[in-house]
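Duplicate of #3305? Posting structure anyway:
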């Protein structure tokens, strides 16, 4: 085998390996329905609380009342995540989708976190948010 053939085969093999690695790391497309949510374990809720604090408190506030520091720049009041009546109207899948793909409303635009967080991390946030309205 000559050097040119060897180099070509090495390049092809490298491309296949890199493609396989990235294929294994792909995330579901925005709008993809998440799998059934696992039970809300204490670890999931604790991780969701930490993620909520990092990603959501700026607008939604620490207790989910919509009074975060960035909320004053919005055109209206955010829905209260700690209100049992409001939250009972939303399924876990709807909350998961809103976090994953973001949401445009008359109040303002919620950013999509689906590229920053894994589906499991978003599920942890959903599990935590559910504890705010109890």
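Output from current build:
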């Amino acid at each position: 085998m000559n050097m040119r053939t060897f180099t070509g085969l090495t390049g092809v093999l490298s491309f296949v390996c890199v493609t396989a690695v990235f294929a294994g790391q792909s995330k579901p497309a925005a709008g993809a329905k998440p799998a059934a949510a696992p039970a809300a374990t204490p670890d999931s809720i604790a991780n969701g609380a930490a993620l909520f604090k990092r990603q959501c408190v700026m607008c939604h506030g620490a207790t989910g009342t919509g009074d975060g520091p960035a909320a004053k720049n919005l055109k209206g009041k955010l829905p209260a995540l700690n209100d049992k009546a409001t939250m009972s109207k939303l399924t876990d899948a709807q909350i998961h989708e809103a976090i994953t793909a973001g949401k445009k409303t008359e109040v303002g635009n919620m950013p999509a976190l689906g590229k920053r967080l894994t589906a499991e991390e978003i599920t942890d946030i959903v599990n935590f948010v559910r504890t705010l309205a109890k």
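Confirmed duplicate; merging threads. The domain at 39-132 is CATH 1.10.760.10 (Cytochrome Bc1 Complex; Chain D, domain 2). The chain is about 50% helix and 5% strand.
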